Amino acid sequence: MKTIPFRRVVAWVVMTSLVMTQTTQVAALTLSTTPLAATTTSVVRPNLMYVLDDSGSMGWDYTPDYVNDTAAGNDLTGGAGDGVKATIGAGKVLTIVASSPPFNSAYNLGVPAVVIQGGGGTGATATATLAANKTVSSITVTSGGTGYTSVPYVTLVGGLPGATWGACWGTTAANAGGIPNDTISPSSCTTTTQPPYSSAAFNYQYYDPAVRYEQPLQANNTRYGSVLGTASNWTAAKSDGFAGTGSTNLTSAWPHEVWCNTATPLPVPSAANIATHLQCKENADSTNNNMYPNATYTFRKTYNGAASYFTMSPSEFCTDDTYTNCIRSTTAQVVGGVVFNIPANYRWCSFYNPLTHAFGNCQGRRDLSHYIPNYLGGWVSSGAAGVQATASMTINSVVSGQSLTGLTIGGVDVVGGQSFLAGVASTTTTIASAVC
User: Fold this and answer.
1) How far, in Å, CA of 178 to CA of 294, rounded?
2) Does position 397 have pLDDT exceeding 90, yes or no?
3) 114-148, pLDDT tens digit by residue?
4) What is the pLDDT of residues 421-433, one digit of tens each?
């Protein structure tokens, strides 16, 4: 006679209990047929809610919200919040005070860190003190450091309850000529004509060539009529595919942004002439870091042409997906035994140093302390525009057979090594004309 071990009996009892419990949990669920707001009983049964968002943001053509950010804070030295400046002496940082305007930003989320960079020295540190209203009351230099031969770049990082930064490139004077904006003074980013607004890598709503877009489903589970199925439909693509209203000619009516060296370019920029236009340039790519506007092409104009989009390629490679430890490269690299194999199209940084044209404290995630996109780069000015040099030369007399064998200004031969021989009929005027 065989006996069943006691532990096996207990196991069967437990298993039976679990099965019965699970059976009870999947009992039929009765959904309420009355909206919650109209319920007249004290027992509220489960409801299914269908929520439609008809707020203004549903009409936006960009995602996330920061794509069209325009504000840059009130700091003119490359970071949001208060502007600060340092004084130096005997190779040390002596003081750090507010630049214009004075301290007036409220650091409601905590005391900002004081960042000191450049100036030829090292080791300078400082701390900020907040007043009762959360504005900076003073900055104390805790160590002056050594070797400072010029004023370093100083900025405050963190502590602000909100921070935005312009996401596109532009110029001063409302994009109507003037000095190109460096990252320290961003322009607005509000139109699909501007990169990277018109790139799916940044604006998640924009057209992505790697995605196949199908017509949406109707209530009967069939698809809406073809929108772009054939070339004939490209000339009247519906602006609202559901409502069937509005249309855009994708072959000729898509706005393009160009930058010109005059407010009145001739001929007027068009799809037919922009490739060879002498006064206007369009951003086709960033080859050799060639992006417009620059110091010459500063007047913004538009023309209509075929629909277009931009793509973004990795400009950095990082060690992991936090994107905090990266190197400038377009390919994966191994540097000093460290593997940089995670591509980054752009990162979010805490500040931009206009003295070195470098970004600082960058990472992959955008937050209140990291909101300056490093894809903007910075405009590196070489100083004021050049002015053509002028000079006058007087020839008092001409003797036949004599010659002028060279003319140098500042050690530079300005006549290309030519010689000018005076003949019998030569006069001061003919010689002067020959030289010039």
Assistant:
1) 10
2) no
3) 999 989 999 999 999 999 999 999 999 999 999 99
4) 776 667 777 766 6
Instruction: State pLDDT tens for residues 246-288.
Output: 888 989 999 898 888 888 999 999 999 999 999 999 888 766 6
User: Tokens representing 206?
Assistant: 């924009």
Q: Would the pTM count as exceeding 0.70? A: no
What lies within 8 Å, CB to CB, of 134 at 6+ separation is 106, 107, 108
Q: In terms of residues, how long is the chain?
A: 436
